[in-house]
C-alpha cells in the first residue's frame, strides 16, 4: 500500500532537488514530449477567447513560464518548493503569472469555473491510488470553465515493463519485491516515485467526471525506446522524426506503448 502523503512529499522533494527535469525536456528526445504537448496546448488555446490558464504541478515552469512570456495570463501551482523557486527565478516581473505552492489534491484556494485551460502535466505521475487520481482530476475539472479544456499527462505501464523490467534486466528484482501483478501491471508506492497506468484506467477516471474526451495522444511515442538515436539526429532528420511522430501520435493502436500520454478533455 502507498505510504503517507508526508512520505510522498519527502521522496518527491529529494528527487526533484537532485533531478534535472528541465534538462530532460531540453534534450533532443525530451523535446518530442515538450513539442507535442505545446502543439496541443496551442490547439486548445486557439478555441478559447482571452484564455485564463492554470498549470497544476508546474514544476520549474517549462510550460507556465513559456506561456506567460508569450503574453498569456497564467496561474502556476507547484507542490515542491525547490521547483517553485526555480520557476520564479525565470521571471522578470513583466509576465502575467501568479506562482503559488499548492497540492493537486486540494485547490481550495482557487474558485470554481475560473480557467479556460487547465493543465495537469505532472501530478498523475505521483498519485498512487485511484482515489487520489480521481480527486486530482475532479479538482482540475472543478476550477475549469464549462467548455474549457483540461490536459492531463500520464506515465504508461507497458514501456516500463519493456524498458525497465526486461531492458535493464530487473525482472528478478521486481518479482522478489512484488512490484508486478499477474497481468504485468507495475505496482508503485511513493519510494518508487512514478505511478504507471494503462489506457483503460484513464478512460475509467474520465468517466467519473463531467468531461468529454477530445483526444488521447502519445506524447513521445517511440522516442524513448531510441533515445541515443534521437539525440544523435541532425536538425533535418529530427524535423522529419517530428513530422513522423505528429502523423502517428493520435493513432489509438499505438497509445499504450508511449512512455507518456496526454489526455485532452473538454468540460461539459
List the helices and strands and how they pair.
Blueprint: H1 5-18, H2 21-26, H3 28-45, E1 52-56, H4 64-69, E2 73-78, H5 81-89, E3 97-101, E4 115-120, H6 130-142, E5 144-156, H7 157-166, H8 171-176, E6 196-197, H9 199-206, E7 211-218, H10 227-231, H11 235-248, E8 260-267
Describe the structure.
The chain has 268 residues and is of the alpha/beta class. The protein has a single domain, classed as Vaccinia Virus protein VP39 (Rossmann fold, 3-Layer(aba) Sandwich), CATH 3.40.50. The protein has 11 helices and 8 strands. The protein has helices spanning 5-18, 21-26, 28-45, 64-69, 81-89, 130-142, 157-166, 171-176, 199-206, 227-231, 235-248; strands spanning 52-56, 73-78, 97-101, 115-120, 144-156, 196-197, 211-218, 260-267. Strands 1, 2, 3, 4, 5, 6, 7 and 8 form an 8-stranded mixed β-sheet that branches. It is globular, with a radius of gyration of 18 Å. It starts with a helix and ends with a strand.
Amino acid at each position: 500500500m502507498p505510504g503517507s502523503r508526508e512520505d510522498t512529499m519527502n521522496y518527491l522533494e529529494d528527487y526533484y532537488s537532485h533531478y534535472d527535469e528541465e534538462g530532460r525536456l531540453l534534450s533532443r528526445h525530451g523535446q518530442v514530449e515538450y513539442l507535442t504537448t505545446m502543439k496541443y496546448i496551442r490547439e486548445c488555446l486557439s478555441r478559447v477567447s482571452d484564455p485564463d490558464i492554470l498549470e497544476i504541478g508546474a514544476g520549474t515552469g517549462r510550460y507556465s513560464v513559456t506561456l506567460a512570456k508569450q503574453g498569456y495570463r497564467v496561474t502556476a501551482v507547484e507542490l515542491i518548493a525547490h521547483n517553485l523557486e526555480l520557476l520564479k527565478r525565470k521571471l522578470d516581473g513583466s509576465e502575467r503569472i501568479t506562482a503559488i505552492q499548492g497540492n493537486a489534491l486540494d485547490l481550495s484556494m482557487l474558485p470554481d469555473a475560473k480557467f479556460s485551460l487547465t493543465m495537469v502535466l505532472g501530478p498523475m505521475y505521483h498519485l498512487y491510488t485511484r482515489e487520489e487520481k480521481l480527486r486530482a482530476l475532479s479538482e482540475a475539472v472543478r476550477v475549469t470553465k464549462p467548455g474549457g479544456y483540461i490536459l492531463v499527462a500520464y506515465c504508461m505501464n507497458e514501456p516500463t515493463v519493456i524498458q525497465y523490467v526486461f531492458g535493464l534486466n530487473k525482472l528478478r528484482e521486481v518479482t522478489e519485491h512484488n512490484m508486478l501483478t499477474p497481468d504485468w501491471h507495475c505496482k508503485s508506492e511513493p519510494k518508487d516515485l512514478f505511478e504507471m497506468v494503462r489506457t483503460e484506467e484513464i478512460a475509467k477516471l474520465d468517466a467519473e467526471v463531467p468531461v468529454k474526451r477530445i483526444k488521447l495522444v502519445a506524447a513521445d511515442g517511440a522516442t524513448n525506446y531510441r533515445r541515443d538515436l534521437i539525440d544523435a539526429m541532425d536538425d533535418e532528420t529530427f524535423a522529419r522524426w517530428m513530422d513522423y511522430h505528429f502523423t502517428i501520435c493520435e493513432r489509438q493502436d499505438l497509445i499504450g506503448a508511449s512512455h507518456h500520454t496526454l489526455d485532452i478533455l473538454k468540460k461539459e
